[in-house]
Amino acid sequence: MTKVRLRNLVQARSGDKGNTVNIAIFAPNKQLYDTLLLEVTPQRVKEHFSGLVKGEVIRYTLPNLYAMNFVCKDALSGGGSATMRLDNLGKCFASNLLRMEVEIDDSVDLPKS
């Protein structure tokens, strides 16, 4: 097993609407996607954003795209027009999630950097 930061494995996009953040990650191949389904769970994402995301984290899987979409509720202190965290709105959450470390079996093909 190897510990790797998500930023070395996937691409990500994020945004916000009201008090909810939406984060999508895209794996480069099915083998890595299947591994990430076990590692990047809603519980781990909520733990990673401890103190920022106060509501539920829901994961939607998109197996045909090797993607996952995380909807994080109560994540922006009331939303863009109400929060004092202007530098932490939705677009920053993808970069933040890419700092998460996951354990990858040595047999999984990792993307070349």
Number of separate strands: 6
- State which percent range the strand residues make up: 25-35%
Low-confidence stretches: none
Secondary structure class reads alpha+beta
Instruction: Give the overall shape.
Output: elongated
Distance between the termini: 19 Å
Mean pLDDT: 91
For the biggest β-sheet, the strand order reads 2-3-5-4
Helix fraction bin: 10-25%
Tell me the series of helices and strands, N- to C-terminal.
EEEHHEEHE
- Largest beta sheet, briefly? 4 strands, antiparallel
Number of helices: 3
The radius of gyration is 14 Å
Description:
The structure is a single chain. The chain is α+β, with helices and mostly antiparallel strands and 113 residues long. The chain is built from three helices and six strands. The protein has helices at 30-39, 42-48, 90-97; strands spanning 2-5, 11-17, 20-26, 57-62, 67-72, 101-104. Strands 2-3-5-4 form a four-stranded antiparallel β-sheet, with helices on one face. β2 and β3 (20-26) form a beta hairpin. The longest helix is centred in the first third of the chain and has 10 residues, at 30-39.
